[in-house]
């Protein structure tokens, strides 16, 4: 199965000079729902990962970075929701969006080809990295941004401390071989929890932590198989000893799994982790539980979910960025 090249066509359609709109109906932006830091941060991640970006993609990264610096307050916390009227509807806090903002900022500071973007992203990252969240997934997302910074700047003490604290917040696998997961319930972005533990073990030089993260990811991969195809944890999650619902599956779960497999492959040199990336790409192209493509080749957008009756036709920002992210990994494999 040949993967298409990553396309930013629908990301551009969903963006303006303020940020990235959250929702669409089919492929048309729904401006009334405004923007959110969560999605803008994801946008900064994928635009900064591009090794040879066009001027338009660099401009997107600059817009997204400007949005995040506007969302951040003087303590390092972030607002999440901005209306189309350019008014915030919430106060700065340390929820998932704080973690995702640090993920985007860390990626931009480490990888973006534009020096002025790297410089400003590092300033905002350093401020945000002084905070800690009570939420496990917020810490995991922030830790992934810290890992990006450490790969580029191995002596960055703030990033090292944040990554170590993120891995501690996630915890290690349990003793039960049938459920070697730190929590009793798989919910969302599960692969990101394993990924941040892997990154902390590798970059911190702790083989025990690295092996714990790899064990978590290997088990999650087994849980998310349906035969030879990928079948990610659906909305509503999967509780230990509970029933397994396979709908509605979300593209963001597929992308987080591909990210984690790429980190595992880099950390170990074991190319067998690339199989997970290939399965994630195939999920978008149609090798999923319903055998249907999960993207629109005419718009470059991803459908918002795999429902019992087929794809949700809406092509929102989160789903489209998940497609772009996964195809970026596919390009490396090819």
What can be said about this structure in brief?
This protein has helices at 9-13, 37-49, 55-71, 96-111, 115-128, 136-152, 157-170, 190-203, 207-223, 251-268, 274-285, 317-333; strands at 24-25, 28-29, 35-36, 81-82, 185-186, 225-226, 229-230, 238-239, 295-296, 301-302, 305-307, 310-312. The chain is built from twelve helices and twelve strands. Helix content is 52%, strand content 8%.
Detailed description of the structure:
With 334 residues, this protein is mainly alpha-helical. It has 12 helices and 12 strands. Strands 1-2 form a two-stranded antiparallel ribbon. Helix 2 runs antiparallel to helix 3, helix 3 runs parallel beside helix 5 (115-128) and helix 8 (190-203) packs parallel to helix 10 (251-268). The longest helix is centred in the C-terminal third of the chain and has 18 residues, at 251-268. The radius of gyration is 18 Å and the shape is globular.
Structural class label? mainly alpha
Alpha carbon gyration radius:
18 Å
Poorly predicted segments: none
Q: How do the SSEs run, as a string of H and E?
A: HEEEHHEHHHHEHHEEEHHEEEEH
Alpha-carbon distance between the termini? 11 Å
3D shape = globular
Largest sheet: 2 strands, antiparallel
Adjacency order of strands in the biggest sheet: 1-2
Count the helices. How many?
A: 12
If you average the pLDDT, what whole number results? 96
| Proportion of residues in extended strands | 5-15%
State the share of residues found in helices, binned by percent: 40-55%
Count of extended strands: 12
């Amino acid at each position: 199965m040949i993967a298409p090249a990553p396309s930013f066509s629908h990301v551009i359609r969903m963006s303006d000079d303020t940020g990235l709109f959250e929702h669409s109906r089919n492929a048309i932006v729904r401006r009334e729902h405004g923007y959110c830091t969560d999605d803008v941060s994801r946008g900064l991640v994928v635009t900064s990962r591009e090794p040879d970006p066009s001027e338009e993609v660099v401009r997107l990264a600059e817009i997204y970075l400007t949005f995040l610096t506007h969302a951040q307050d003087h303590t390092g916390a972030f607002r999440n929701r901005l209306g189309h009227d350019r008014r915030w509807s919430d106060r700065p806090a340390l929820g998932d969006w704080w973690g995702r903002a640090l993920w985007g900022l860390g990626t931009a500071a480490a990888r973006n080809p534009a020096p002025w973007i790297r410089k400003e992203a590092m300033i905002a990252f350093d401020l945000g990295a002084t905070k800690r969240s009570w939420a496990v997934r917020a810490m995991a997302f922030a830790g992934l941004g810290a890992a990006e910074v450490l790969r580029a700047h191995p002596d960055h003490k703030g990033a090292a401390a944040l990554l170590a604290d993120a891995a501690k917040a996630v915890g290690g696998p349990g003793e039960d071989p049938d459920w070697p997961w730190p929590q009793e319930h798989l919910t969302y972005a599960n692969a990101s929890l394993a990924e941040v533990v892997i990154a902390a073990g590798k970059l911190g030089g702790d083989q025990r932590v690295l092996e714990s993260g790899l064990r978590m990811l290997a088990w999650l991969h087994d849980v998310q198989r349906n035969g030879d195809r990928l079948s990610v944890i659906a909305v509503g999650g999967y509780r230990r000893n509970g029933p397994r619902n396979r709908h509605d599956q979300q593209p963001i779960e597929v992308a987080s799994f591909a990210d984690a497999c790429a980190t595992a492959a880099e950390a170990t040199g074991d190319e067998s982790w690339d199989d997970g990336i290939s399965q994630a790409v195939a999920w978008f192209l149609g090798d999923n539980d319903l055998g249907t493509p999960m993207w629109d080749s005419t718009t470059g957008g991803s459908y918002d979910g795999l429902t019992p009756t087929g794809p949700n036709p809406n092509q929102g920002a989160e789903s489209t960025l998940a497609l772009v992210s996964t195809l970026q990994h596919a390009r490396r494999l090819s």
